[in-house]
Amino acid sequence: MTMSPVRDNHVVALFPGQGSLVPGVGRPWASDKSWNVIHELSEVTNVDIAHLLLTAEHDEVVQTDNAQIATYALSLVGWDSYQRRMSSPAVFLGHSLGEFTALAAAGVIDYVSGAKLVQARGRAMKHANDVAPGTMAALMGGDDGAIARLGEIDDLWLANFNGEGQTVVSGSLDAITELERRGKEMGWRRVTRLKVGGAFHSPLMRPAQTELDNVLATTTFHPTDASVLANVDGSTHNGGDVWRTLLSRQLTEPVQFMSAVLSLSSDVTHSLEMPPGAILTGLTKRIRIFREQSCVEPIEEQL
Description:
The chain is α/β, with parallel strands linked by helices and 303 residues long. It has two domains: 8-129 and 202-301, Malonyl-Coenzyme A Acyl Carrier Protein, domain 2, CATH 3.40.366; 134-193, Alpha-Beta Plaits (2-Layer Sandwich). Helix content is 42%, strand content 19%. It is built from twelve helices and ten strands. The strands form two sheets. A six-stranded mixed β-sheet has the order 8-7-2-1-9-10, sandwiched between helices. It has a four-stranded antiparallel β-sheet with strand order 4-5-3-6. A hairpin with a 6-residue loop joins strand 7 and strand 8. Helix 1 (36-45) runs antiparallel to helix 4, helix 4 packs parallel to helix 5 (98-106) and helix 6 packs antiparallel against helix 9. It is globular. It starts with 6 loop residues before the first strand and ends with a strand. The mean pLDDT is 93.
């Protein structure tokens, strides 16, 4: 009989998306005992993940299919290393791709099943962008009126709600170009095109749906005593088959990161952010501070 880990109710484990990956980011972890995770997942996926994390150049690293499996694997190296030393958090939250890693860390899926899902997802999303090219842009400083005016541009969709005044959109290349031109007039202080391989979390990812759903259909989702916050609804789910639908929806629906953070219990006071991330803890702090939740202390980083 497998015993459930003793969980720390004060800690949320955060798992980043592929945008955190840069060349050489795995080097500080290459001598860690948990680096064996890289070898295991490389064999399963037939991808040289060590190369992607240690020696690959920028253009190869940021390619969607490479970035997703490399980020997933490195985050699990960090997670495996942490588990050797500390008790397990009770709450898990991943951003986009990071949701798959969060589920693996929480025990809802095993590492290998997660790697197969991530590999299929990355390849399918790369193909979807070949079919319908698009990209993403980060918007700063807009209010509800500015958000409403986004509807004036065709083929543009809200993709990530990362906090007050920080929204990410996806769209066709023409739509993002028009947004860059009209952004200030529409009420945005800054529009920053992101270096990503497609219009993620938007209808332009629909060509990837069938391939992802086929792998989801053959994946076993276990129950867990941990709380995993879902991207598409910001709510807590404790494992099981519901994740088959939630992960499918995530492909074309926005990431509700702010809603997920606001649903954290007041008991959660520390975060543990996996490599290669260094952004989600800051976002979580700002969301809590901005909303002035008097009963909740801003998240403090544990590592």
